[in-house]
Design a protein that fits this description.
- There is one protein chain.
- The chain has 108 residues and is mainly α.
- It has one domain.
- Helices cover 58% and strands 0% of the residues.
- The protein is built from 4 helices and no strands.
């Protein structure tokens, strides 16, 4: 039996059972959950970087977004607030779509 020891999406245990398999799992304590989300984000980031095509890349980006929304909940806000902050920052400071790469700034 494979051992995973990792955070999985909420329905994974049900899906495993529906496929006739047994599993063991537990609910994480708060601190463990925070750390597991961070580990999971890094896992998804690696998978995004290794994605062989756009379809797989979008799947990994969606996983990262789900993790980010759950991290935001731990900071007391929902995904709507995160999106509002993102929009505000884009209005005030811009996004990243212009591809500006800052080299240096001089005080002259």
């Amino acid at each position: 039996m494979p051992t995973y020891n990792k955070l999985v999406r909420d329905r994974i245990a049900d899906i495993i059972r529906e496929n006739g398999k047994t599993l063991s799992s537990r609910i994480l304590e708060h601190g463990e959950y925070v750390e597991a989300l961070k580990v999971k984000f890094n896992e998804e980031w690696r998978e995004y970087n290794e994605a062989p095509d756009d379809t797989h890349a979008i799947e990994e980006l969606a996983d990262m977004l789900e993790i980010l929304y759950n991290l935001a909940k731990l900071h007391g806000v929902d995904e709507e607030v995160v999106n509002e902050v993102c929009q505000r920052k884009r209005r005030e400071r811009g996004g990243f779509s212009d591809k500006v790469f800052l080299i240096e700034v001089s005080d002259d």
